[in-house]
Amino acid sequence: MAARRARRLLGSLCIALLFAQPPPSGAAARSGSRSLLTESLVRTFTPFYFLVEPVDVLSVRGASVIMNCSAHCESPPRIEWKKDGTFLNLVSDDRRQLLPDGSLLINAVVHSKHNKPDEGYYQCVATVDSLGTIVSRTAKLTVAGVPRFLSQPEAAAVRRGGSAVLGCEVAAELAPLLRWERDRRPLPPERRLLQLPGGALLLSNASDADAGLYRCALDAGGAPKYSEEAELTVLPGAEEPQSLALLRPPSSLSRLPGQSALFPCLAAGLPAPHIRWTKDEQQLPTDGSGRFQLLPGGTLQIQDVSEADAGTFTCIAESGNDTLEAQAELTVQVPPRFLKSPVNIYAHESMDIVFECEVTGKPPPTVRWVKNGDVVIPSDYFKIVKEHNLQVLGLVKSDEGFYQCIAENDVGNAQAGAQLIILDLAPAAAGPLPSAPRDVVATLVSTRFIRLTWRPPASDPQGDNLTYSIFYTKEGINRERVENTSRAGETQVMIQNLMPETVYVFRVVAQNRHGPGESSAPLKVATQPEVQLPGPAPNIRAFSSSPTSITVTWETPLSGNGDIQNYKLYYMEKGQHTEQDVDVGGLSHTVTGLKKFTEYSFRVVAYNKHGPGVSTHDVAARTLSDVPSAPPQNLTLEVRNSKSILLQWQPPPAGTQSGQITGYKIRYRKVSRKSDVTESVGGTQLSQLIEGLERGTEYSFRVAAMTVNGTGPATDWVSAETFESDLDESRVPEVPSSLHVRPLVTSIVVSWTPPENQDVVVRGYAIGYGIGSPHAQTIKVDYKQRYYTIENLDPSSHYVITLKAFNNVGEGIPLYESAVTRPHSVPDPSPMMPPVGVQASILSHDTIRITWADNSLPKNQKITDARFYTVRWKTNIPANTKYKTANATTLSYLVTGLKPNTLYEFSVMVTKGRRSSTWSMTAHGTTFELVPTSPPKDVTVVSKEGKPRTIIVNWQPPSEANGKITGYIIYYSTDVNAEIHDWVIEPVVGNRLTHQIQELTLDTPYFFKIQARNSKGMGPMSEAVQFRTPKASGSAGKGSRPMDLGPDYKPPLGGSNSPHGSPTSPLDSNMLLVIIVSVGVITIVIVVIVAVFCTRRTTSHQKKKRAACKSVNGSHKYKGNSKDVKPPDLWIHHERLELKPIDKSPDPNPIMTDTPIPRNSQDITPVDNSMDSNIHQRRNSYRGHESEDSMSTLAGRRGMRPKMMMPFDSQPPQPVISAHPIHSLDPPHHHFHSGSLASPTRSFLHHQLSPWPLGSAMSHSDRADSTESVRNTPSTDTMPAAAPELPEPEGPFLPAEEEPPGPPTAHVRPSHPLKSFAVPAVPAGGPFDPALPSTPLLAQQGGSHPLQAVKTASIGTLGRSRPPMPVVVPSAPEPQESTRMLEDSESSYEPDELTKEMAHLEGLMKDLNAITTA
Fold it and tell me: How confident is the model at residue 164 (pLDDT cuts 50, 70, 90)?
């Protein structure tokens, strides 16, 4: 796609040659294609780079320094220098000068304590005026300070063959300039003499020649500076063993690859110490064959350090039985190195490009970008993507130049650059160019993306070979971006990565093989505002304020829509998984009640009116240390001999140490003299040998742990007695002198006497026992003990018992005995007491800890027998859930595998042997909530009746909600494969299970997904559900264009555009009266002619006619013979029409009625499709005003009925009875009465007396249009404007005028007493064939609401009553619309005037009856 896009943009420049390699993002050509270009076609890249870059330099005061720099370009570049980011003015500088090759010479470096003008960071800048600017890496110039010794050598003495260290410390930058002298002469190079990088001198295997005066010298320019002299004395070798000591332990180092490292480990002692080294607990080969060498004195040298050498090095010094260890870390730092450098790029204006830059180093380098020597500041159009890459959006000509990626870390920096050339668009080739694309619209607008659609240009309506470029920019920004369609002929595109609530300007340009054409008119579209939640609170900090509290502070989030309402502070102990929270109103909070010297993590979430925002990162803090809150554990005493006792112990429990244990304080005293206490402070070791005690004396000891805050509680006093004399422990003890056993039912009491030979040390006794063998179990007891009871034995069993004395050498000779336990004669056990105090502690969403107490245990609740506990639990949902059980041997049990947010009940029983208790009282606990683990189910999408652009989404809650559902999120999109962040989001608050989505595009497939959420977060999404919105031809939303009535349309005479057909402009009563009287006279003349014709009919025909007219709601069906049907008396030209006999029907609400239809299509002239479409639009328009929640399904169904009109002869205006449906919401049946005419009198009374307001859901304009569509007649031979195209066979009818649910207004209630006769003439149609089969009017099944009231309206004809027309009043009219209708009705006519006219009409009807009777 990218290559095709680039070829299209470059046009006739043969850009196919530019793309020999795959182009980068934005379809820009890479420098690898430059060799394929020719000067005549496009500009080529210019080589411009540094040959030499400056490096770090160490200098001394007064010396001269050269910072090297040299650049290459076809045109000689101009070299300048920056120091600490500022250009140097070398013209007026007498100490600094620019050399011909571009290097910088600094003469006589100046450096003092308060004036350091030359020290700093230097950078070389190369510029070619017509091309651009590049910058070099930065180089540091370090000037050694005034020679000064931080520490002086001190006199020392060393035994012959031993080791010594002479210290001499200087500043780090002066260390390379340091050397040593002995007796004021340089030291000879010997392996025994090693100068460390810090300056110290290590001397090993000392000899008499090493004695003398030592001093260190600094050669920092000029005369050397000497330290004080220190005398080294060599003593004779020691004869007695000397304790092992480390004179110079190793210290941690940081090195670069390729450097060497020295780890000293100088030890002294006798015998001479042996030194060995390990790395990460692996033995190092130091035989000298590799990079690791062991120098004299135990120093480890690592040559050519690599990254793999980083780790922990341990020096192990061994001398006799003594061993000492010391550790040091080696850190290997790596300067930045480019894994992928930027490459040259060709591009056009408005395109997007990406310069790639991938670096490595240790520590990880930071990256900044420079364009023509200036730092690129990230913005909306210059972005850092994928960590280090530079993306430039919407290129403009000024973006051309050199871009450099500069990477730097603590140990170095590096740069790499590339050139950007922006090409001009090629001139269009000869040939027609496309015109501007038409009808550019935004069909889908979200917060961060917009879908644009358009029609092909008028010059190429098909547009199959056209491609399109979409240019867009923020309003008011000149930098324009471009997006191209993915394939030819495609007329839509999705523009992504936009900003919310921002106005963008779009234009579309079509391109053919000759080039780009005209641009469409700019289209401004504003993205939707984003429900902005608060961002993370910046600068969150946590610090300990006491051993049990930590204070957390933060600042107000920088982003967010609306004021911050509150904050929630979450904290958790390190290593735990249960997070706690607290609501905070301000910007700081102190959390109290924490554990001492324990690390906690903290995070903050800000809340605004939209909900929780983005959490901050976790910050950790440790509470302050305190004195330990518990004593050390397991203090034991071991008498070593007559003068010493060994103490051993364990640290206090981890949760009670309250800090780092720095040592232990031991207090001891003679038992006989409790006031005389001796203290001994030891290190962190867990044992101490107390020596110098008196023989045969009993001592008491106690130990307490110490931290930096003080000493904690001590253990209880523990006593031991020293031996009377130093006993022999070179051999094992002899056999005990006697062994006695006394069996009981479940135990055996063992007693003994010590060995007869008391000269051998006895440390204790080992008792072994078992059935048939004494080796099943072994118990060791103290040497003072003389008896022991073996518990938990089986009754009536034969046990073998052995007794052995032991000391540190080993165990002595055993003494054997056997015994048979007594039989069990105890009666059946009585039940035990049940556990009490059962408590359920909720730990997580699936774990609850059950604890209890056992009153049958001692007060300390220590279990010493073989009892066990059974825990059972269950939940009450569903009710028949079975119990689950588990056994425990302690007073607590962890129940896992529970369901989230579920109430459980727990009980416990205890069992000991054959005795069991009853179940304890129950404890209840509800597990914590968890995010939903299943999506919402049964997702359905239906169209909202009457609103095709509105859909209703329904669903059911997820099966595994795992908590109270607090809302749902509906995702929808027209592309099921789109990334989820490109879908439009509709949030639903609360536990509602339905939601309406409005303003969708017609005839478009949409895909919907739903996601549930609770207090813990979001659950999984449901599967995508597809739904296609209805077609535009069936209905349209609000704002539909008015019906196109054709060129021959003429407005009605009265300007009838009121809801009820009344004139818009008021007429005076005299004119109205003249019109009424005129119409009445014409009616009488016509009726007289009809009456003369009717008197010729036979009496039988009159009877058939009367019978046919008695049915009120009968079904109308055609007969095959026209002689069997007599039309109504008031029909004029009735030879053209035929009505079926009206049969009586017992059902007051017939389900089906028939109406005559023309024989063939020639009988009715079709109406233009646009009329029908607009009629549908009008119908949908009135439906759009209905209540969204109470829309009837009937209204939606009847919206698709085709309309039907009868043809009449083209005559002057005549009294014609038009049939219209009467709609009802409750019983949804349509009655189509062809021969009924509403009585004006009855209509008037109905309006006066009806208890139900005559509501209409139409607006005034809609009602006016609807009335005109029925009453207006074209002047040519076409159907009336209200007549649509012919219905399909057996199709349902669409009424001639679709009224809202409620009584008809324009037809049941005329605005004038004679207005129902004033129907305009109908153009002549073909003859109506009475033999034509009928088409039934399909009934619609509706709701089951009972009818509230049924009104009938009729007009008397020839003294016979016509079947009344039922008018069904709805049960729930809309108040607002009803009020409007009543106002309209009141403004249409005055009651007094109408009464006079009605009386006049009744007189006319009496005269008509008299004439027809005669």
Answer: confident
pLDDT at 749 over 90: yes
Does the CA dihedral 1097-1103-1109-1114 come out positive or negative? negative
Distance CA(357)–CA(389), nearest Å, equals 5
CB 381 within 8 A of CB 394: yes
Residue 1390 has pLDDT above 90, yes or no: no
CA-CA distance, 1172 to 1403, in Å (whole number)?
43
Q: Which two tokens stand for residue 1231?
A: 């009655």
The share of the chain scoring above pLDDT 90, in percent, equals: 27
Query: In b/e form, how buried is each residue of 305-316, taking b as 16+ CB within 10 angstroms?
Result: beeebbeebbbb
Question: How many Cβ atoms are within 10 Å of 47's Cβ, its own excluded?
Answer: 10
Query: Using CA atoms, how far apart are residues 296 and 248, in angstroms rounded to an integer?
Result: 13
Q: 């007219």: which residue's tokens?
A: 1109
CA distance 549 to 542: 10
The token duo for 531 is 């429900």
Q: Could you tell me whether strands 132-144 and 57-60 are parallel, antiparallel, or unpaired per DSSP bridges?
A: parallel
Mapped onto helix, strand or coil, the DSSP state of residue 1148 is coil
Token match 């909720």: residue? 842
Give the SS3 label for residue 795.
coil
For residue 1059, the 8-state DSSP code is: T
Please report, as a single letter, which amino acid is at residue 412: G
Please report the pLDDT score of residue 431 as a whole number. Answer: 75
Q: Phi first, then psi: what are they for 964, rounded to 5°?
A: -75, 125
Sign of the four-CA dihedral 1364, 1368, 1369, 1374:
negative
CA-closest candidate to residue 672, choices 645, 653, 694 = 694
Pairwise CA distance, residues 170 & 178, whole Å: 8
Comparing C-alpha atoms, which of 821, 818, 742, 754 is closest to residue 781? Answer: 754
Q: Which residues pair with 511 in a beta bridge?
A: 467, 516
Q: Are 518 and 598 in contact (CB under 8 A)?
A: no
> What's the whole-number mean pLDDT along residues 1161-1168?
40
> Can you tell me the distance from the alpha carbon of 777 to that of 768, in angstroms, rounded to the nearest whole number?
6
**pLDDT tens digits for range 769-804:** 999 888 889 999 988 889 999 999 999 999 999 999
Task: Write out the two tokens for 1018.
Answer: 């979001």
Q: State both tokens at 587.
A: 């910007």
**Beta partners for 871?**
886, 908
**CA distances for 885 relative to 875, 1235, 1319, angstroms:** 13, 83, 88
Beta strands at 156-159 and 230-235: parallel, antiparallel or unpaired: parallel
Question: Which of 611-625, 825-839, 876-890, 1385-1399 shows the lowest per-residue confidence on average (mean pLDDT)?
Answer: 1385-1399
Buried b (16+ CB within 10 A) or exposed e, 5-38: bbbbbbbebebebbbeeebbbbbbbbbebbeebe
Q: Which of 569-578, 864-873, 1030-1039, 1331-1340 has the lowest mean pLDDT?
A: 1331-1340
List alpha helices for 252-390, DSSP H: none
CB 1176 within 8 A of CB 1035: yes
Report residue 466's pLDDT band, with 50, 70 and 90 as the boundaries. Answer: confident
Structure tokens at 1115: 């079904």
Dump strand ranges (E) for 372-485: 374-375, 382-385, 389-392, 401-409, 412-423, 438-445, 450-455, 467-474, 481-484
Buried b (16+ CB within 10 A) or exposed e, 698-728: ebbbbbbbbbebeebebbeebebbbbeeebe
Q: What is the DSSP letter of 1380?
A: H
The packing angle between helices 1260-1271 and 1169-1183, to 10°, is: 150
Q: By three-state DSSP, how is residue 368 classified?
A: strand
Q: How many Å apart are CA 1332 and CA 1203, to the nearest integer?
A: 18
CA 825, 827, 833, 835 torsion: positive or negative?
positive
pLDDT digits (tens, 9 = 90+) for 596-621: 889 999 999 998 887 888 899 999 99
Residue written as token pair 């993002």: 25
Q: Order of strands, edge to edge, in the sheet holding 994-997?
A: 937-944, 947-956, 994-997
